[in-house]
Amino acid sequence: MSIPILELNDVRKHYPVGSRLPGQERRYVHAVDGVSFSIARGETLSLVGESGCGKSTVGRTILRLTDVTSGQVVLNGMRIDGLSPRGLRPYRSSVQIVFQDPFSSLNPRMRVRDILAEPIRNFGLAASAADLEAQLVDLITKVGLREEALDRRPHEFSGGQRQRIGIAKALATRPDLIICDEAVSALDVSVKSQIVNLLSDLQRDMGLALLFISHDLAIVEYLTHRVAVMYLGKIMEIGSRKQIFGAPRHPYTKALLSAVPVPDPEARRNRIVLEGDIPSPISPPRGCRFHTRCPLAFARCREEEPTLAVLAEGHSAACHLTEAGI
Ligand code: SF4
């Protein structure tokens, strides 16, 4: 079996909150609470869930923008969670991110040429000035823009074009993995599908692994190979696109999918409306974290936390009902 590009083993990220008064216990936000998954070369795994479920924090721990509280982050077979900034440097080029708002991640005073050249120079990836120029032309055309775009500044482009430049910037270091954090959420519907198609094409042509963080399940269904559904810092269900969209087993997954608009006006979906708000991640509910909103909750759910159990090859869910084969 080939080594996965990325592996997360029981990753936790707890942030301390407030100041601790004498005699008081320190309180923590349980942003990520024991998340494990892997991504292979050429694969897209989508992390989905309502805002505040911890999916973006997972992305930040992989990029080492924040340190993990415990657990392992393994990139290309090497643990990176404990590395110093210096030790991390060789791996920085392997993982890149595409943000939701490309405008804030592109320096408005720089020409696109300089924005793209910066990471190439930082990682010493150009052998000569001619090589650098060839790489810049290759990057900008790969994302569907013309060579002239190199000499313009970010404000001269539309939102979709700016996102293409953001993708070109992410590709500049020849990464193995790109994290797309709500990368198409701010775009118009037609532009959204163009960018999603671009990401799919690049992935196919370059063998990239993609971690697609999104709350937009319609886009996820179109793009992804596998899906992990998160709630309050934990994975509730993980499986292939077919398993999650065709035969979801966890009540939370079913509720999320029931809210996705159906293109066919004749088709009807039984909408499952979740009551109440997501509980505070400072003190997640005892037992199943979803029990305060689950329409199927029963006594055991309030006491005992279900573990992520295998239902079929590649498909797992954390629910007492699926454990019982229901
Ligand atoms: Fe609902 Fe209970 Fe399953 Fe949790 S364990 S999802 S509360 S039925």
Overall morphology:
globular
Tally of distinct domains? 1
- Order of adjacent strands in the largest pleated sheet: 6-7-8-3-9-10-12-11
The span between the termini is: 33 Å
Compose a concise summary of this entry:
The chain is an alpha/beta fold. Helices cover 33% and strands 22% of the residues. The chain has one domain: 3-Layer(aba) Sandwich (Rossmann fold), CATH 3.40.50.
What does this protein look like?
- The structure is a single chain.
- The protein is α/β, with parallel strands linked by helices and 326 residues long.
- The chain is built from 12 helices and 12 strands.
- It has helices at 55-62, 85-92, 102-105, 112-122, 129-142, 159-171, 189-206, 217-223, 241-246, 251-258, 299-303, 320-323; strands at 6-17, 27-39, 44-48, 70-75, 78-79, 95-98, 177-181, 209-214, 226-231, 234-240, 309-312, 315-317.
- The longest helix is centred in the middle third of the chain and has 18 residues, at 189-206.
- Iron/sulfur cluster binds at residues 251, 288, 290-291, 294, 296-297, 301, 306, 319-321.
- Iron/sulfur cluster binds next to helix 12.
